[in-house]
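question for whoever is on the cluster today: can someone run the full assembly for these? two chains, 514 residues total. i dont have access anymore since they changed the login thing
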Amino acid sequence: MAPPTSSAITLNINGEKFTLTVDHRTTLLDALRERLDLTGTKKGCDQGQCGACTVLLDGRRAVSCLQLAVAAEGREITTIEGVAEGERLHPVQQAFLDLDGFQCGYCTPGQICSAVAVIQEHAAGWPSAVTDDVRPEAGPPPLTDDEIRERMSGNLCRCGAYVSIVQAVARAAASEEQPKGAAA
Amino acid sequence: MREFGYRRVSDVATAVAVLDAEPHARFLGGGTNLVDLMKTGVERPALLIDVRELPLDRIESTEDGGLRIGATVTNSDLAAHPEVRRRYPALTQAVLAGASGQLRNMATVGGNLLQRTRCGYFADVTKPCNKRVPGSGCPAVEGEHHNHAILGASGHCVAVHPSDMGVALTAFDAAVSYESADGPGELPLAQFYLPVDDTPHLETALPPGALITGVTLPAAPVAARSRYRKVRERASYAFAIGSIAAALDVRDGVVRDARLAFGAVASRPWRARAAEEVLVGAPADATTFAAAADAELAAAKPLPRNGYKVTLMHNLVVSELTALAEGVAR
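^ ran it for u. tokens below:
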């Protein structure tokens, strides 16, 4: 007997529970946008190559276009709608606004979710592909512009707002306050 | 995308049993390659067995000083692990050279080894491809092949394996552990990937229905001084056009031990044993390093539009071994 091709699932998104029945082919991205009206998360390439659909899964950044919704059940999902603390913007959001870290804005939700996680990953001491010495004895690398560019390379911006995006990530990282986000 | 069933499993025995009962099933790890291939119709499983929550997410030291890495460890956790960074820095560098932060958080070690080639003909279901449809032909031999194989290919398939992680694991003699309906087993990575020959659709020596449970790295003191370098068409977030994992132990100006593996040049991560043989016991200088590169690349059979890879790999061998001999960290 062929197995069922849809399931009733409960998704935990931004601290709220949503129950829905999904065709197993549904990506988390499509579930968010088409079923739950959480349209802040954007669809760019739908192939895991552009980062526009970046969300946080259990505090870690992930592309929601390659994440099946049914496989996201039980995980803590944070979208761009959930990174602020009530009316108080997340420091990364504030920095993107203050420094014009965007032009058209389409990639911005993914950029911001990714940057929230980048700052946490760096704070946890994770090296990157441009880190000179990855051995733990070398200590955490300073979050230079090169480090930010490498760590943010999974988020494309076709307007080319990269200069301001790097500045915004650097400013947000330098600010002490990180209300919530990635627990790397 | 074809409709499919979904089953999440929490123990290895159940995972193997469910696959045994449904041969058209696939194990789902991070999904970063499989889900993409399902969208394009290259993969059409009837059932996905979600193995991400299996208790295979640990990295542990072995008694002999090596590391045992669970199959569901994410690329991110592998790269960030202090003992990986300390004992096998080229492995951390290789993993960090691959994909993006988002994908590394999703992708798993088991899935990385089983990821499919990024050959454009393999990915395009409207084109022939011997790997996807055995016997249909290989347009890459005459067509778009500037990033295809120079070593170990055949007239039936010239695709390259895309993994960075696998290159470092190959250099350090990793072994793959698996569980199957017939019980557990282990394969050295050197025997894990099958030669291309006329069967490019048969990629690994894993028994049918087997689930990768982990990878074991033996103790390798030489690996503490190792580097991974990746060349690609842009600075970040792209597949390699050539890469190298290298480790070198030099004493009194003489090479005592050396490990070399190449990426993006063959259907599998390519262990450069001919080069290693030239290196061990020879003076650690540019002449030796060039001779080692020549020894390995003597077997290269470049295609009309990828001959640059022979020069590229030669230069990578010399530059990385020189850096290691001079004590440069990366």
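summary bc i know u wont read the tokens: Chain A touches chain B through 49 residues (CB under 8 Å). Residues 177-184 of chain A have pLDDT under 50 and may be disordered.
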